[in-house]
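Field reference: sequence -> structure
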Amino acid sequence: MYKVLLVEDEHYIRAGLRTALDWEAYGLTIAGEAEDGDEGLQAALALKPHIIFTDVRMPGMDGLQMAERILQELPETKIVLVSGYDDYAYIRQALLLGLCDYLIKPIHEEEIASIAAKLVAEHQEEEERKRLEIEQRYTLHRSRKLLFTGLLNEFVLGNDDILHARKFEELAPWFSYAAYQAAVLRVENYTQAKRDHYAGDEESVWFTIDNIGSEMMCKDTLLFRKLDMPSEFIFIRGYEREDEGMHPEQFNRQCEELVKVIGGFRKMVVNVGLGSVVTATAQISQSFHRALLALHQLDLRDGFKVEAYRTDTLRAEPACAKPFVERLKLDLAQLHTARVEDSIRGMFRTLRAERTVPRGELYRLLASLLRMTEQSLAANRPEAGQRLSQYEDMSTLIRLESLDEMESRLLGTMLYHIDMAKKFSITGPKEAIRMLKEYVTANITSEELTLGDLAKKYYMSPYQICRLFKSEYEENLQRYIIRLRMEKAKELLKTSQLTVKEIAGLSGYSDVKYFFRMFKKQTGCTPAEFRTNHC
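Structure field:
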């Protein structure tokens, strides 16, 4: 709500202004009142209103003097002069001061409504402009670091052509050491730590790691974020002499101290994987991938460890899981929901009982079972099997932080797609898209009409929904939803006295500012202007 201050020495006129308009319908609230210019100045400085309606001629300080003083302190305040005197001198002085408008008494409700709508729109446009300016400044401030982070991510993934890119010139001198070693730090309870201790702010987690790491590591160490995995951070240590790199005890000790310090800060559980020492920049990628493998050698229950890369070969999957895998293959082929659930729960009970299971083997097990699910469904229900990969991105598996999460993800995915295969065999795509349209129309005010929500409900991918809807009804689904919501909003604006905020909620928009922008984009006017023009 934008705050309004009324300054008028006549009590009945002030009361008339207060009741002349449904201020809340325009996103406004009367924050205060004053009887003269001195009181008005003090109230304005205390309340910092967005809009002031003030009389011109008042005892003591008049409206123009007060307005001039207020604008010196609060230059963004919108001030409207109200006077019974149609005097060019007042109007000229108001214009020179940059005041927003000048009203002649007696004032009609339509005039106040028009000005209120205009000033609210101006405030919203100014707020949007400021927001964009702040975002641009913030983006410019971060752009070079983000650029380097992106380039370094490409580099450690094997694109050593990056070294020759002109944008890399500022970092190029760093790549002149005799030897290098990569390390990867992973926050094992990243999701919980971010939620419980950082209010869900990913940037704050990165800021913590960056500050502590930069403070504790020597100047010969680069630290940057792994962009495709928010819980992982990459270190590249440079050694001045090759013989130093053959015995990196100091780097190892620094990593051990680092996990202790970070672990004591906001209850983060961290591990570090150390890659091998290499003697050429083109081999840094190899050291990095070995650091990742070192992390995968650890058990999910491990914490505060620094694990060096070993040449041990990880098995394709834990040995204790093999009997369950064979059973699951048969259960999936028969689309037997209860037996699939029993097999998965039994397998994870066995995994929990194991003394140690490398996380790399668990990731491979999950990937193998999801591939098996896809193949089984494809054999029985070709259309359904084809869709599995659209719902399960394999790269997300390594983000799972516990056996509980792995069990839940695997069980949910398998049961969901078995159910999908069964239902798809009796419901064709055209019938499904008709049912989807009926559901959207009947629940147009619901916020759960995203493509993701609808895809889960109707067993189709977002792409299929968009394609089929456009083909069947010659209209984009999102435009259809927006059109129906705008029709609902316009009807409520014309037939009710509900506030704009209430109408936004009843039209499916919890964010009133977003509703305001969307309404203006679709209709060419603000909700308040629409109500004024159609009532």
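Note: The first strand starts at residue 2 and ends at 7.
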